[in-house]
Amino acid sequence: MSLSSRDIPFPKKIPLSLITIRPATLFDLSEVMRIERQSFREQYPRGLFLTFLEANPETFLVAEYNGRIVGYVMGYLRPDMEGHVMSIAVDPLYRGNGIGKALMEVVIDRLIKRGARYIGLEVRVSNERAIKLYEKLGFKKMKIIKGYYSDGEDAYYMVLTPDAWGGKS
Length: 169
Fold this sequence. Notes:
CATH architecture: 3-Layer(aba) Sandwich
CATH class: Alpha Beta
Helix content: 25-40%
Strand content: 25-35%
Radius of gyration: 16 Å
Shape: globular
Largest sheet: 7 strands, mixed
Number of strands: 7
Order of helices and strands: EHHEEEHEHEEH
Structural class: alpha+beta
Strand order of the largest sheet: 1-2-3-4-5-7-6
CATH superfamily: Gcn5-related N-acetyltransferase (GNAT)
Oligomer: single chain
Number of helices: 5
Distance between the termini: 50 Å
């Protein structure tokens, strides 16, 4: 069976005011994993999501629209007080609505309020859309990590300082 162009769903345009950002729950994990599968070549195992949820309930967030999980972000505070964004993804049907930016803003605020000296993340050098978002939020490219991903692609390590965040929290 082949798909025609009318069978492929178009991205949905929705007002950001209808999106709720809240802490993830155990009941959200299957939807988070669905978005993970749709978004990344490599996926984290379910056990990692469970462990992360238990350890970081304030900074594992989901975006919800009409009862449907449409995005998530996973952030945490390291013992050295580095905030770190481990993963962020938005359902492909809902991209372009500002959901990723909104998720990042909330997790950044929470990490800074918890005392993060700075916030770091890794991103594929080919992921121009994400890089533009991070730069818009104030992240700076600090270095290239050669062969970071299992397919051999390099990553940028990017950092945001509370000063660069400019008191948005």
